[in-house]
Design a protein that fits this description.
With 238 residues, this protein is an alpha/beta fold. It contains seven helices and seven strands, in the order ααβαβαββαβαββα.
């Protein structure tokens, strides 16, 4: 949201709560999950650019989309016709560009929202960011691949340490076991998972990350509760 309405991820920009005049906005789920893992890296160097690709689950489109994915999957496995009922394309064993309308700049509504809200949450209106949002046949939890360009080299070890020290973030980074963030492990968890931290082989100032978070929690309800807690708002007793 624009204007004087603060857009808040408490672990990232809790100071924005002081700017509210009665209304506080809960951010887009992708932006919330993204900024949770990008913001801690700012202690290491200035971030100049983000390149993001998302793998967004059915739950982002609601309970009906989740049920439709199950129905389509059963039909496909049974050799029956797959007829989409909620999203515009067959969903089982398929993926497609996010279902929000493509706008005049060539980005869809989801992509434009994530770019605008990420800049606002990070307090960096000039941040270079580009994103492609994709819907994938996963029931719950969004995954994001993030390429970060800094103004100087940052080591993967320093990045892991900064991320491991950040509230609400869990590092899942075990190359020996090929174990990195996965939707089935992020589902139902409050923390955002981050891993696959490695140098960008094409850019000495770049790092790559893999991020996964339950967008029904940190991307939505949990973040709203944390905002209320930060404001010391408690439910009224009946």
């Amino acid at each position: 949201m624009d204007g004087g309405v603060p857009l808040v991820v408490p672990e990232v920009n809790a100071d924005a709560l002081d700017q509210h005049t009665g209304v506080i906005a809960n951010p887009n789920c992708v932006a919330a999950i993204l900024t949770m893992c990008v913001a801690p890296l700012r202690s290491l160097a200035t971030i100049e650019r983000l390149v993001v690709a998302t793998y967004q689950s059915a739950s982002g489109a609601g309970a009906r989309a989740m049920e439709d994915l199950l129905v389509q999957t059963r039909a496909s496995l049974a050799g029956q016709p797959v007829v989409p009922a909620v999203l515009p394309h067959p969903y089982a064993f398929n993926l497609f560009s996010h279902d929000s309308p493509v706008e005049d700049n060539g980005y869809n509504g989801e992509e434009n929202k994530v770019m605008a809200e990420t800049r606002k949450i990070l307090g960096d209106p000039a941040l270079d960011i580009t994103i492609t949002c994709v819907r994938v046949p996963v029931l719950r939890a969004h995954t994001e691949i993030v390429n970060v360009t800094f103004d100087q080299p940052v080591s993967p070890d320093d990045a892991r340490h900064a991320l491991a020290s950040a509230p609400g973030v869990t590092v899942v980074d075990d190359p020996a076991k090929n174990r990195f963030p996965m939707p089935n492990e992020a589902t139902g968890r409050d923390d955002v998972l981050v891993g696959r931290v490695r140098r960008d082989s094409s850019n000495p100032n770049g790092l790559n990350l893999m991020v996964c978070g339950d967008q029904l929690l940190k991307g939505a309800a949990l973040n709203a509760v944390q905002i209320a807690e930060a404001l010391h708002i408690a439910p009224q007793e009946s």
